Amino acid sequence: MVYCGKASQGCQSCRTRRIKCDKVQPQCTQCVRIRKPCPGYRDQLSLMFRDESSKVMQKAHAQWGVSEPSELGEASGTSPTTTASPVPIRSRSSGPGGAASPSSATLATKQRRRRSLEETQLPPEIKETPVDKAIRFYIERYIIGLPDEPRTAKDLQGIRWIHSREMRNIMAAVGLAAMSNLSGDKAMNTLAKQHYGQVLQNIASSMKNIAALDLEVVLRAVVIMAVYEVTRPRDEPDSPARTHVQGGAAILSSFLPRGQGPADGARGLLQLCFSVVAAKQSSFQYSSLEPNHMIPSSIEPSCDGTLPPMFSDWISISQKMVTDADRPSAQLIGVIARFVQLAGLVRAQPHFDGHPSTTDMILQALEIDEDLEAWEARQTGLWAVVEERVSDDTFFPPQAVLDGCYHVYDNTYIARVWNHYRWARILVNQLLLESVDRFPLSSASLIPPTRQHRSLACIARLARDTLVSVPTHYRHPSLREEHWPYFDKTKWGASIGVAGIPTLLFEVKVAGCAPGVPMRHRAWALEIIETVYKKTGMFQARMLAEFLRKETERVRVSSSASSSVSGSASASLSPEVVSAGGGEEMGFYAAVESAVVRQVPIKVEVAGGVGGFL
């Protein structure tokens, strides 16, 4: 490796004159002496982003005795071979659309792949401090390559917000916490807390002077503080993260009515509102003994669906200021908020089979599902979802792209809203199916076998769509440069790439734990979440992977038991008799899933004559 010397943090004038800079604030002594304005000093972050490629090559050629760079290249007249990219096949669309045009992208050579990898990594510094390493870790794994973020380290050079004091501290905090998770070094976690505390102080100080507030830096810092909360080890990461998201929504909503917010401020506020309801729903699993169930065996008073007092005001502001193109998202957020409130009510309050309140709860769930179904039916044109697959089944790494299929949306904001719709509708249908098990008397007339089949089919479809959408939101480490153009058909539009990762993890977990989902889809979802943890060190991913792993094993055992019991009657089309009591939690689902596959009607019998819980 060619050593180019330790980078100087002196001012440009002193470095040009090749003299020592004392870096005195506000101007160095050398510039004052010659009566010239001092151009200022470079910080460590700027040094990380500098391009030293030409200097390295010059010194390397000098050491190797090579006069011309062409002498290192291939022989004259030769050229790297290329292979034509597979043609995308548009297999399914939720709206009108023509056939996909063949892509002009070509497969990269090994040299191009190596160069692409180098571009996505920052140049290592001599004697890096732990903070420098943490910032590098964050930039390489939480920024570069994610949708709506710079593609290479070089692209970061012109970004203003990344050089702010608040951003440097919060990037260091997240990077240190993540590295601590992966290495087990507790000292890094302690240092992460110190930098996190500095960010809190800086933000609090900034809020004292609203007129001078840099809204872009503050909002981005607040969002990344929420990312820090899901990265650091804790039993319930979503609760403090939700507090930061709510704070960001409060700040943004105070600027929008005065016309002082960003041009896409209403979209940003809606994104924060979606994050609030998703984090609220996700928080139920951390304090529950049955994290993968919508209706627990016993009440959980700590799980309530109460949303922030200002939440309705945020939605109202968004609906008044949202563009016509984004209006479907403003219509959807209210429906999902109703569902989260209902889901919390189901967990926190007792329900009895046959009681009017239980019947009312089921009716509310059915009404919410109808509203969600109607919302999906209205989405055409700009909001249509197109599924494509390539003609070469081996082109995409199977662990990164499910069955070689991917989605194309107009922009990443629309893609995120669709996934919010999916997790909400999966869970509302799961609630309906669990109501058949827990409350057979109340649900008998409201959720007949045909409605149960519809719910299972809906869950299976939306769970698969969630998994197929993953490359739009997260670029798996196994994806290469030649794969990106297929996913880049979805334009940018969600502002902060990393902000979508915690919610995506929750959505993938919901899809992997849903009833009726094939085992291979569960396994694929688990591998995605585990990959995110190994890549980012995000502690939330580790916890969700454990939830999904336990649920997958439980379903596997229950399905095996159910198959052995009903094997002799597998050829019969008589009604499937399912026990809905006696504490057999997954037996009902296993039997229903088996019946759906064989198109067998379902008959529910209640063990002991009564279902329900206290």
UniProtKB/TrEMBL annotation:
The keyword Acyltransferase does not apply. Residues 10-38 form the Zn(2)-C6 fungal-type domain. Pfam families: Zn_clus (PF00172). The keyword Nucleus applies. This is Zn(2)-C6 fungal-type domain-containing protein. Keywords: Nucleus. CDD domains: fungal_TF_MHR, GAL4. It comes from the Eukaryota. PROSITE patterns: ZN2_CY6_FUNGAL_1, ZN2_CY6_FUNGAL_2. Residues 60-126 are annotated as: Disordered. It comes from Humicola insolens (Soft-rot fungus). Residues 75-105 have a biased composition (Low complexity). InterPro entries: DHMBA_Reg_Transcription_Factor (IPR053175), Zn2-C6_fun-type_DNA-bd_sf (IPR036864), Zn2Cys6_DnaBD (IPR001138).
